[in-house]
Amino acid sequence: MNVKANISSDIKVDYNGPYVMSIGGRLVGANQTFDVYNPATGEVIANAPEATPEQVEEAIAAAKDAQPGWAALSWEERSAYLTAYADALDAHKEEIITLLTTEQGKPRHSMATVEVEYAIYWVREVAKRKLEDEVIEDTPEHIVKVAHTPLGVVGAITPWNFPILLGLWKVAPCLITGNTMVMKPSPYTPLGTLKFGEIAQKVLPAGVLNVISGGNAQGAWITEHKDVNKISFTGSTATGKKVMAASSGTLKRVTLELGGNDPAILMPNTDYKPLIPSLFDAAFGNSGQWCIAIKRLYVHDSIYDQFLKDFVAYASDKVVGDGMDPNTDLGPIQNKMQYGKLLDMFADVKANGCKIALGGEIDVSLPGNFVPITIVDNPPRDSRIVREEPFGPILPLVRWTDLEDVIADANNTDFGLAASVWGPDRDKAIEVANRIEAGTVWVNEIHIHGIDIPFGGHKQSGMGVENGKEGLQEFTNTKTYMFKK
Length: 485
Ligand code: NAD
Prior knowledge:
The structure is a single chain. This protein has helices spanning 53-72, 75-91, 93-104, 108-126, 163-176, 191-203, 216-224, 237-247, 276-284, 304-316, 336-351, 384-387, 403-411, 426-435, 468-473; strands at 21-23, 26-28, 33-37, 44-49, 134-138, 142-150, 153-157, 180-184, 209-211, 230-234, 253-257, 262-266, 294-300, 355-358, 374-377, 394-400, 418-422, 440-443, 462-463, 476-484. It has 485 residues and is α/β, with parallel strands linked by helices. The protein folds into two domains: 3-258 and 460-484, Aldehyde Dehydrogenase, Chain A, domain 1; 262-450, Aldehyde Dehydrogenase, Chain A, domain 2 (3-Layer(aba) Sandwich). The longest helix has 20 residues, at 53-72. The structure holds nicotinamide-adenine-dinucleotide (NAD).
């Protein structure tokens, strides 16, 4: 099969709007719209359609209609479609990057570019993966074979921190395994997702990828619907619990990628100077609005004082500003709801008399949701800034002396998303990593992801995984065939 995207002449996408939903191959608006803001300026930049219950119904029906035909294609044919989709996205990548910065806030020249390029790479690479049938037994008398069959219609619900990457992380494995999808992005950042849905309509068969927009209600309609067979959700732990409860009515499969409060542990005598840029980016990248950001940095007593000084000096040079400005290192907080939560967290830090080593004052007179890089010097272990996920550019440094005690404190959380351990003695660091209760633990590195590397949370950070063979399998039913020869 020769699938080719007509990427230059056929696809006309206006990035200034209108912003439309993709339902059964048609581009549709809605009677009601909601405002989308630029978080750096506070200005309304677009109106997005508020899907009606009928439109959500239509999107699910379109996905259901399209699914048998899509599943009947060979794996290679679906792969060709996804490769064509990656080509089409690539042809529009500059516009998508600008749109991402405008609606999400992250710097265009760094984080936004990385997010969009990485997302497209993901689609292209997942298109090359295949789940092979597995022969469990093959004797002269008997064969046992395990195959992976599509689930049907998948509902995908995404958050506002990495809307393009987390969206396409769901699209690619869902489609390559023979499912169709209805996607709903966060109401705070719907525009890029609506546009990648629009591009898909020029390349993929009608109904294979449907994108609707709206608030939390639209998400709930998808999770409750009897014709949706799986929910792939990324968002907060609180919403994840609602998604799981709603999915139980029809025993939908669920993959939940939820919140985290990731610890990083610096072991005694770590030569930390070369690590400072990585540690800074891992904690403050995307302005801390990152599920796997370092949210608690435990520094051994032997290096704590000097580390604090050097880390603060490095962070002091970083610029918080409008993501369209090439001098900006960190953009604004994406929305007023999260900004309000940070105001509350900053007030709590102050009220509890925590020592602030950098930042600490939010200037509420600014038009955008700007929050300064803030480093808290050894707050009490039971303070909110250590125990909760702030989801902003504020990081507690915690001094430690006793290894058993720091491991216990790192694990003293309902979250279990990721963690990192850093130190000169690799074996010792690995020993500590083995005892951290988290889905991913990095040693002397951080934030490495890969198409073939499963990623998912332990405890209340999630259920199931994305990526890797295991991530593909989560979009399938396991089907066992047996027969006598
Ligand atoms: P959120 O849970 O508020 O919203 C996520 C999505 O769920 C949105 O599209 C929202 O409209 C929808 N939604 C809300 N209520 C719903 C309901 N009852 N039924 C169905 N859908 C509903 O999360 P957020 O504030 O957008 O994102 C931030 C959170 O996401 C943080 O906790 C962060 O750690 C987490 N996150 C996790 C990962 C991961 O991979 N583990 C990645 C990114 C973000």
